[in-house]
Amino acid sequence: FYPAVDPGQLIEKIETYTHGNTVEPYRVLVLDDSRAQAKFMETVLKKAGMNAHIITDPMQIITALEEFSPEIILLDMYMPGCTGMEIARVIRQQDKFHSVPIIYLSAEDDVGKQLHAMSLGGDDFLTKPVDPKHLIATLHNRGRRARSLLALMIRDSLTGLFNHTHTLYLLEQEIVRARQKDQPLCFAMIDLDYFKKVNDTFGHPIGDRILRSLSMFLKQRLRKTDHIGRYGGEEFALILPNTRPGDARNVVNEIRERFSELVQEAGDRQFKVTFSCGLAAWQGDSSQSLCERADRALYVSKAHGRNCVTL
Ligand code: GH3
Ligand code: MG
Ligand code: MG
Ligand code: MG
Predict the structure, then answer these.
(1) List-wise, which residues carry 4-aspartylphosphate (predicted)?
(2) Is the pLDDT reported for residue 187 higher than 60?
(3) What's the pLDDT band for 121 if we cut at 50, 70, 90?
(4) Cβ-defined contacts of 108-111 (< 8 Å, 24+)
(5) Is a pLDDT exceeding 50 seen at residue 18?
(6) For residue 68, with 0-12 CB atoms within 10 Å meaning exposed, 13-18 middle and 19 or more buried, which class applies?
(7) Lowest mean pLDDT, pick from 3-12, 53-62, 84-93, 229-238
């Protein structure tokens, strides 16, 4: 059935359906042992503006996950040597792909078997022959939802900065990149000074407002390629790729000074807030060791009277 349909005829319908959206193409991994069907799927997905990666051998799944990092997975149910359900289980075992949408695509029309397959980690079941419009609509909906969930998962809700987990993930990534490109990398830990007193004196909502304003302040003053995370309560982490230690110190020091001069307001009361910073340059060590060195430098800044940067 599949190869008999001219994918060219589908373009118009699909384009109407996707409203010519200009979202970043969804990365869709397709596993189907039938080369003809896989090829057909590839054509349909590409016409719909998706980034399709096709495999026909189930043994390639691990490599494909690793290298392609799909956002959605389309799985055939019956293949020689294994079933789609077994593949779904392998995918679900990996933390990183725990919530990636898996859509079965099969000629299996026994509802009991379909439900069983879905109970083993699938999110949808589309019966072949599938209407391409239906397929593309399903992929768009699943993809959009997966992306918005992911965006929520990696951010801190108060400040909109990256959360602790994602900050550490980014640090790992940047260490890999710094090693590959043989570039410098700096990591900074920022901790607001006497913040408990700020809360006690002016109230928690004012404290929250200051956390948000420091976040904005950091965003405005750092480069697009830098990463800013809320490491903990009143602690922030800065990842500064391709930055030499001396330059990092100058930048952070200037931010520290400007921030310390901002006049904060609580009703008719005015006050100032400062932060301390510990900075560490990557020395080929692990992310954990880099964090520990930044943390120790932060401790030194606190011991030296706060409102300063230690490298
Ligand atoms: P130091 O200069 O030694 O860092 O003193 P500190 O008071 O900042 O340090 P401490 O760790 O004792 O207290 C941190 C305070 O930060 C505790 C808490 O009141 C405040 N804090 C942590 N998270 C939040 C938050 O989400 N909102 C607000 N308003 N305050 C927070
Ligand atoms: Mg098959
Ligand atoms: Mg603290
Ligand atoms: Mg503090």
Answers:
(1) 76
(2) yes
(3) confident
(4) 108/77, 108/78
(5) no
(6) middle
(7) 3-12
Q: Which ligand neighbours the alpha carbon of 212 most closely?
A: 1
Mind listing the pLDDT tens digit for each residue in 202-217? 999 999 999 999 999 9
Task: Please name the residue whose Cα sits nearest to atom 5 of ligand 1.
Answer: 194
> Which active-site residues does the annotation give?
234
109, two tokens: 């029309």
Closest approach atom of ligand 1 to CA 200: 19
pTM for the predicted model, two decimal places: 0.79
Contacts by residues 154-163 (CB-CB < 8 Å, ≥ 24 positions apart):
156/229, 156/230, 158/208, 158/211, 158/212, 158/230, 159/211, 159/212, 159/215, 159/230, 160/215, 161/215, 161/219, 161/228, 161/229, 161/230, 161/236, 162/227, 162/228, 162/229, 162/230, 163/229, 163/230
Tokens of 103: 């859509």
- Side-chain-facing half-sphere of 256: CA atoms under 13 Å: 26
The DSSP 8-state label assigned to residue 274 in this structure reads -
Output the pLDDT for position 151. Answer: 87
Select from 158, 191, 193, 195 the residue to mutate for testing ligand 1; criterion: most ligand atoms less than 8 Å from CB: 195
Closest atom of ligand 1 to CA, residue 192: 8
Determine whether the shortest distance from the Cβ of 236 to ligand 1 is under 6 A.
no
Å from CA of 69 to ligand 4 middle: 38
